[in-house]
Amino acid sequence: MEIFKRTNFDFLGKKWPFIILSLLLTAVGVISLVVKGGPKYGIDFNGGALMDVNFKQRPSAEDIRAALRKKITGEIEVQEVANSQEVLISTSVRDPKGLEAVRNDMLATLNATFNPGMAGKLDINTATQGQLVEGLREPLAKAGAALNDDQLQALVSRILTYRDTPPRSGLIRNLDELSAVQGVTPGVLGAIKGVVVPGNLHVGRVEIVGPKIGADLRRQAINVVLIALAAMLVYIAFRFEWMYGVAAVIAVFHDTIITIGLFSLFNKQIDLTVIAALLTLVGYSMNDTIVTFDRIRENLRFHMRGSFREIVNASINQTLSRTVLTSGLTFLTAVSLFLFGGQVLNGFSFALVVGIIIGTYSSIFIASPLLIALKDLVESRRKNVRPSAVDARSRSVAGSVKGIKTVK
Amino acid sequence: MKRQLRYKFLFIIAVILVSLYGIIGIPRSKSELVANWEKNIHLGLDLRGGTYLVVQVQQQDAFNAQAGSDADRLKDEARKANIQFADIDVEEAKSLATAVKAAIVVKGVPSTQAGSFRSIVNDKFPQWLSTPLNGTDYRLTMKPSEALQFWQNVLSQSKSIYDRKINALGLSEATVQQRREDADSELLVQMPGVDDPGRVKQILQTAAVLELYDVKGGPYASREEALAQNGGVLPVGTRLIGAPGSDPNARGGGVYLVARTPIIRGPDIRDSRPQQGQLPGNWETLFVLSQDAARRFGTYTAANIGNRLAIVLDGKVLSAPRIDAEIHDTGVITGATTQQEAGDLALNLKAGSLPAGIVFEQESTVGPSLGADSIREGFVAGVAGVLAVIVAMLIYYKKSGINATLALILNALILIACLSYFGAVLTLPGIAGIILTIGMAVDSNVLIFERIREEAREGKAPAAAVDAGFSKALLTIIDTHVTTVVSCAILFLFGSGPVKGFAVTLVIGLVANVFTAVFVSRFIFDWEMSGPKPVRALSI
User: Fold this and answer.
1) What is the CATH number assigned to the segment(s) A48-115+205-209?
2) Do B518 and B456 share a structural domain?
3) What is the CATH code for A12-40+210-383?
4) Are residues B502 and B519 in the same domain?
5) Does residue B482 sit at the A interface (CB-CB below 8 Å)?
6) Domain contains B160
7) Chain segment B435-478, per-residue pLDDT in tens
8) Which residue range(s) make up the domain with B73?
9) Range B268-305 burial, b when 16+ CB lie within 10 A, else e
10) A283 interaction partners in chain B (CB closer than 8 Å)
11) What CATH number should be reported for the domain holding residue B301?
12) Distance from CA of A395 to the nearest CA of B (A)
């Protein structure tokens, strides 16, 4: 099967609509960034607390916010995770000493509001190993199923592993489910039921980041991306010519800016995993661009006929089949990640899906026209250079050649 | 040619076997296979569940304390040398950033005694640098080199105390390390498997400075009352301790007038353990003193029967019992209600007292349920993505799609085996690296196949088309791979934890990819064409 056979589209002739589209997208992104006062950083970069709570039956975001509002003064954001009963609750805290308090307040408030009437009983969905061991020791002894310390620890650890394994994912709905656990006999289950209740929520993740670390991570992430771009520029300039390096890096930079802009537009947070995604997308886009540039270089080396612009256009056509296929296939991976990858990878896969589209198109419509423009610019400069300067340059070249000769 | 192919084949088989061995060892049963897999593949905290803490050591506490005790010593030395002074006081550092600026301020030294004052500072306090403020006042700050040394000591002391605390908690896999190389003040505590860090944080936070003081008076309700009761000025060699404004009869309440230097300090404690109290439901923490301290304590208690002794923990007076008889080497701290509470205090006393307080800068706790979900979802997504890619390749490239598929699978195998051999930790960003690797692997195959097709279209025979396709695509593959490796090197050098994980997996994947897409895939083509029947057309 072949989709593209000896295509000869005039990509560069149609570059303007795409360049305008790029500018438009960039402008929309930048405007959104400016209006919203910069990217919406996740707590990794901003400082704050984030909690991932899994509910049996998810209350409305408004209820959760209202409950927390009583205790927490900062901005509270409640984000529902699609296709689940999970909720991400985040709040920004600027005072490092207040972080601990916020964490405990959030937990206590959630428990008080959504787990009423647990008086004196242990909640299996929030209890820790230690609490369960302590809580079960006596009831088990009374029920005639006394266990020594090691046996008890092992039993509790089995129960908790069972609770935390999908599809339960931390939530036991009915204590009868526990009879599937090895060692939970009807007698043991009876004793458990006496002191334990299944609560309505389970906290899967807590992230707390102090403002200092947040600023640190943010600065580091930006630095590292910029240095990586610079290093790639140097390498490409070394392997090809500096113009290629500049064009490739500008194109990749363009992708990054648009993706960050889209994140701002869709109100998605930028956190550390998104940075990983941006790096991945830089990798893809750079890869695409280099494949095209490589072909241009090869065609130039084999003295293909035509102007530079025609050679570039031909090269794009020659690699078109590969570009579309690779992008299509990697796009498949990214989409499956977006659909099945779960909420932790959500931001990551979103960046990837967007990035692959933009990366592919930027290597055709941004990097290549830029390369031509740079080349034209350099050549027209060269023509306009004053003769005396040319003289000086050729003299110095001649001098160096002579120098080599004398050494020989 | 044939012989060369055989060597290549053996080499590829060897790589597969070594990779498999790295991942699952030599399993004799299914359960052993799973066990080996779990042993060899190290999952990061984000995937297996656990807690990651960044604590900031409040260096200013240690600097202030050092300035405080040296100020006391300076007073004594000045008195001994008959040097007059109006006041010697500490100017405390308020924040971490200004910790090294903690100073001792000396006021009112007559100018005639300036020389002898300076020589005391030079001889007895070499850590400090004295700057005259005017004719009679001086300000002592720590010398920069000494301050740096002191800073590092505080950090390494804190680190080793945390190590001891965490070991005592039985968290064998937990680690404590400095977050960054430079003279920073942050420690990173990683605790796999801990999903309820509350108790651990409590224990880490407890400075556990235990001191026993000779009580000279009290309890009083406030500092003012204490002063009033003592005629407006504190007697020489005494200080006030406790919580002003609290009920003097409550536990931990009241202000006491005590001797300035404690009789017993934290480092004097040799052992500590919880024990059942006299009343049911009461727990207490027993502490045992070192030999030297026990002798001192014995002499002191024998001479002070009938006097009171304040037991002070982290600046709070826990109790002030009367000394009934000579005590040698043991004491108890009462008041705990559970065994764990008494046990935690014992643990803290044994681990030693922290030189400075801490602030939690970052906490990341991932419960095992979420980790398990992430693994499952990541796995499902990865498998679905790879399957889709394989199906598409098989449709598009027909039989050659098999080459690509084999190369892809082998790539994943080598990548995972390398992670296992290097002891690298697989995290979510690492999975991102694997996904980019899959993309690059697919790309290499596509590049090669498209090139072969182009060559074949120009009328080349299959063998020549394969040859030309591979050699032309190789240049491009090397360029794209090296560019990515260059950026990974930067990420590894300048990035932090998660970004590093991404870079490591990606580099391994890329190297494996050059091997599988170029070497292995080529081998399969050559092998196909080396058969007895000449190949007329490529299935591509």
Assistant:
1) 3.30.70
2) yes
3) 1.20.1640.10
4) yes
5) yes
6) no
7) 778 888 888 999 999 999 989 888 888 889 999 999 999 988 99
8) 59-147
9) bbbebebeebeeeeebbbbbbbbeebbeebeebbeebe
10) 436, 440, 484, 487, 506
11) 3.30.1360.200
12) 35
- Whether B385 sits inside 8 A of A332 (CB atoms) is yes
**Among B389, B394, B435, B458, the residue to mutate for chain A (most A Cβ within 10 A):** B435
Quick one: what percent of chain B has pLDDT higher than 90?
A: 11
Q: How far is B265 from chain A (nearest CA, A)?
A: 29
For residues B339 and B216, membership in a common domain is answered with yes
Name the residue ranges covered by the structural domains of chain A. 12-40+210-383, 48-115+205-209, 122-199
CATH number at residue B457: 1.20.1640.10
The answer to whether the Cβ–Cβ distance between B498 and A209 falls below 8 Å is no
**Whether A284 and B436 lie within 8 Å, measured CB to CB:** yes
The share of chain A scoring above pLDDT 70, in percent, equals 93
Q: What is the DSSP string of B307-368?
A: SBEEEEETTEEEE-PBP-S---SEEEEEEESSHHHHHHHHHHHHH---SS-EEEEEEEEE-H
Beta strands across the sheet bearing B316-319: B238-243, B254-259, B210-220, B309-313, B316-319
Q: Does residue B173 or residue A154 have the better pLDDT? A: A154
β partners of residue A270: A41
pLDDT band at B62 (very low <50, low <70, confident <90, very high): confident
Min distance A377 CA to chain B CA atoms (Å):
26
Mean pLDDT in residue range A187-192: 87
The answer to whether position B101 is within a domain reads yes
Query: In terms of domains, do B434 and B493 share one?
Result: yes
- Per-residue pLDDT of A78-127, as tens digits, reads 888 877 888 989 888 767 667 777 888 888 888 888 887 676 788 888 88
Q: If you average pLDDT over residues A328-334, what whole number do you get?
A: 85
Closest-CA distance, A283 to chain B, in angstroms, reads 6
Q: Is B377 found in the same domain as B358? A: no
Contact A159, A181 (CB under 8 A): yes
ipTM of this predicted structure: 0.76
Q: Do A206 and B364 touch (CB under 8 A)?
A: yes
B334/A contact by beta carbon, under 8 A: no
In the 8-state DSSP scheme, what is residue A196? Answer: E
